[in-house]
Amino acid sequence: MNANCTIPQMNCFVHSPHHWRTPPFWPERYGQFCFCQNSNNNTYWCIRTVNSTHNFLYCEFITEFISYYDINADPYQLHNIIWSIPLGVLEQLSRQLELLRTCHGYAQCEHYSSSVWYLPFIESDDNSIN
């Protein structure tokens, strides 16, 4: 195990088999490992979609890791099924996530959260959703 458990812009620390106090325990034979948590410094972004036809979580990490969880089938998010999602859908999710990451103000951000997120945002005097 690399004694230097650091990655730039990440919160990293070493776990050993002795860290775990409740099941499931980390097997002794696997030894220690470096764990880096992305949530401390905005190093990942997600879209959570819940409606009458979908209930999923799509995330992109600065490490280029991508995840997709069907929350109806996998409520504890144990099985990343990114490989089963069509490329066109992944491209749409990535584009929408980028629009949400860079939107400004309530009206624009709400627009990119709506079912017509793919349409151009046109700012109006009354700040209604277009």
UniProtKB/TrEMBL annotation:
Gene Ontology molecular function, alphabetical: glycosaminoglycan binding; N-acetylglucosamine-6-sulfatase activity
Organism superkingdom: Eukaryota
Family (UniProt): Belongs to the sulfatase family.
Listed name of the protein: Sulfatase N-terminal domain-containing protein
Organism: Litomosoides sigmodontis
